[in-house]
Amino acid sequence: MNDTLLQWAGCCLALMLLAGGCANKEQGEQSVSVTDKVTSSSSTTTNYKGKVASFSKRAQAIFLTVGSGANAQTVRVKFDDATKGVDEIAEGHFVTIDYELRDGEAYATSVQQNKATLPEGVTNIDTDELLRLIRERASFVLVDPRPMDRYKQSHLPGAVSISIDLSEQQQTELLPQDKNTLLVFYDGGHGRGTAITSAAAAKNKGFANVRVYTTGRAAWMDASLPTYSTREYIQSGNVLVIDTRPKKTSAVGRIKGAYTLSVDTINATLRDLPRDAPIVLYGDEATKALELLTDEGFTAVTLLDGGYASWVEAGSKIEKGPISTAKIKWERKLETGEVSLDDFRKAVSGKEKDILLIDVRGRDEIGKQPLITNAINIPLDELPAQEATLPKDKMMYLYCSTGARAKMAYNELANAGFKAKFLRMNIKDLSAR
C-alpha cells in the first residue's frame, strides 16, 4: 500500500424506436440486442439498458449506448419534468430507462442506475471499512477488474489489476493461491457490474472470503480520497505532471516534462491550470495539492503510484538543471467528431467557404446569445425533421451553449451518413480566445 495515504484519512427517433434502434455507423450496423431492450408482456412499458453517452437537461434528451462491440449502437430517449431519476445520472453511468412511445418517440418515465445483485456468499464493503483495511495494512488483495487502461489512469491505493478482459486462465494465474485470502473487488461504481461479475467468478473458483466495494471508484473519489496513476499512463498519455518538491530538490532530478510547483504556487496560479487536463502529482506536498485541486473542482487529479523513487528505479526518463518558469502549456486531444477551435474560427471568418455552421440551441436562446456570423439555427429537437434539407456532401460544424447538445447533434447526423463535427466549448468564451 502506498505510504502517502497514511498521511491523511440520435438520428434514431420514430423509425429507430419502432425498429429496435438504428446502428451507430462507427461501431457497426446491428439491431438492438434483446438483452438491451425488453418489453413487458403485462404492460406497454419498454426498457433500454446501456451506458449514458450524452446527456442534456436543457435539451431534455439522453443518448444511450446499448450493446457492445460490433453490436453497440446509440439510441435517443427524451425526458420531461415527470421523469423519475434524471437528477441521479451522468455521462458514463450504466442505467435502465423505462420509456413509453408518444407519437412514435420514446419518452423516459424513469431512469435508474443499474444495481447488480451480489452473488450468494459475497458481501459488500463500504468506503470506511475499506479505508480502514488499507490504513491498517490488513492482509487482503484489492482487485481492479476494469480494462487495463482504466487501471493505469486511476486506481485505488494498493490495487492490483486483474482485468475482466483477460482469459479465465490468465485471471486465475493472477489470483492468490491461498483460497482463504480476503479478496475485495471494485470497479468504477457506475452500475456496469464488472466487480460483481469478477467476484462471482472468484467465488466459483473456491475463494472463501470475497467482498465487493459496490460503490467503487466513484464513491472513493466523492470521499476526497486519492487514486493513483501508473508510470505507463504518464508515458503514453496527454498528462500534466506536477512535482511538488522544493525547487532545489527538483533541480537535482525530476520527471521529464514535469512542472515544479509548490502547493502555495498552485493556489496562486489556479487560473493557469487547465481544468480539462488529467493531472498527476508527486513529491512532498502531493497529497495537499490533490486536496486543494479537488476542493477547487478539478476532477481528474491523481498521485503517481510509487512516487518519484519508483519512476527512477524503473529507469524512466528524468531531467536535471534549473527549473523552468514558463507558463504551463497543455492542449486537450480532440474527441472523435470534435472540431478544433482554429478550424471553427476559420469557418466563422469565411476562410473555409465549404462549411455549414449550425447552432442547435433552442430558438428562445438566440435572443440572449445571438447566432455566430455565417451560422443558421436548427434546434436539436428539429434536426431529424430537417435532415432532408441538409447537404450530404458538405461538412457541418455544430455548436450550442456548451457543447453537450452539439455532440448529440453530431451523433445523430453522423449516424445518418452526414459529414459533421461538433464544437466542445462555451460560446461565451469564443471571443476571449
TrEMBL record:
Pfam families (alphabetical): Rhodanese
SUPFAM superfamilies for this protein: Rhodanese/Cell cycle control phosphatase
SMART domains assigned to the protein according to its UniProt record, in alphabetical order: RHOD
Gene3D superfamilies (alphabetical): Rhodanese-like domain (3.40.250.10)
InterPro entries for the chain: GlpE_sulfurtransferase, Rhodanese-like_dom, Rhodanese-like_dom_sf, Thiosulphate_STrfase_CS
Molecular function GO labels: thiosulfate-cyanide sulfurtransferase activity
Boundaries of every Rhodanese domain copy: 136-229, 235-320, 351-426
Protein's name according to its UniProt entry: Rhodanese domain protein
Provenance organism: Desulfobulbus propionicus (strain ATCC 33891 / DSM 2032 / VKM B-1956 / 1pr3)
